[in-house]
Automatic annotation (TrEMBL):
Name under which the protein is recorded: N-acetyltransferase domain-containing protein
PANTHER family (UniProt xref): AMINOALKYLPHOSPHONATE N-ACETYLTRANSFERASE-RELATED (PTHR43877:SF2), AMINOALKYLPHOSPHONATE N-ACETYLTRANSFERASE-RELATED-RELATED (PTHR43877)
Organism domain of life: Bacteria
Keyword terms: Acyltransferase, Transferase
Occurrences of domain N-acetyltransferase (ranges): 1-127
Alphabetized InterPro entries for the sequence: Acyl_CoA_acyltransferase, Bact_Acetyltransf, GNAT_dom
Lineage of origin: Bacteria, Pseudomonadati, Pseudomonadota, Alphaproteobacteria, Rhodobacterales
C-alpha cells in the first residue's frame, strides 16, 4: 500500500468499519484501551477483518482470543455467513490462535503480488 493510500485508509476508518455492516471492537485492561479489531463487509454475507492489535504490554491476558470471539459473535448477529482475513507469516502465535478458532488456510487472491506470497497468508471460516 502506498503512503497516500495508507493515509487515506486511516482517514476513512470510521466509514470503512461503520455499522451496520462493519464494526470496531476495543479491549481494555484495567480501563486502559489495550487491543482492537475491525471488520467490514467484503461482499454480501462475507466479512473481512483487519487491524487486530493487542498492545505489547497487555499480551498474556488472552485479549486476542477474546476480541476474536466477540467479533465472530457480532458478525453472526450481523448476518454474515463467512469471514476471512490476511496476516503476516511472522505472527506465529496469532496463526495458532486463528487455527484453534476454526480458521483454515485459503489461497492468495488472484493478482496478489508474488513477492508478498511468502510473507502473507489468508484464512477463512464459516460462521
Amino acid at each position: 500500500m502506498s503512503p497516500v493510500a495508507f493515509e487515506a485508509t486511516l482517514e476513512n476508518l470510521h466509514d470503512i468499519h461503520k455499522r451496520p455492516l462493519g464494526g470496531v471492537l476495543i479491549a481494555s485492561v484495567d480501563g486502559i484501551p489495550s487491543g482492537c479489531v475491525m471488520y467490514s463487509e467484503a461482499e454480501p454475507g462475507v466479512a473481512e477483518f483487519k487491524r487486530m492489535f493487542v498492545n505489547v504490554s497487555s499480551r498474556g491476558y488472552g485479549l486476542g482470543r477474546k476480541l476474536l470471539d466477540a467479533m465472530i459473535e457480532q458478525m453472526v448477529a450481523d448476518g454474515y455467513q463467512r469471514v476471512f482475513f490476511s496476516s503476516a507469516t511472522f505472527l506465529k502465535h496469532a496463526r495458532a490462535m486463528y487455527e484453534n478458532a476454526g480458521f483454515v488456510p485459503i489461497a492468495h487472491p488472484d493478482g496478489f503480488p508474488d513477492e508478498w506470497r511468502d510473507k502473507v497468508y489468508f484464512m477463512e471460516r464459516s460462521l
